[in-house]
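Schema walk-through. Below, the input block comes first and the output block second. Nothing else is stored per chain. Lengths vary across the set, and this one has 71 residues.
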Amino acid sequence: MNWSLWIRQFHRWVSIIFTAIVLAIFVMLGAGHEPAQWIYYLPLPPLFLLMFSGLYMFFRPYFRKRGGAAG
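--- output ---
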């Protein structure tokens, strides 16, 4: 598997983890349970990973075109 496909797959799985964490926090709040303060920081590590992998995927086509255009 090449590097770009691995990044895409990684981004998909991290987004599922991020969504599950945020959903769990909202479910806890909706059920009337006040979670500990550190629970609110749990989505941050996946969010930073999503930011970096998303930026890579966003800029990847621009770098590919620049290197391949000879005309």
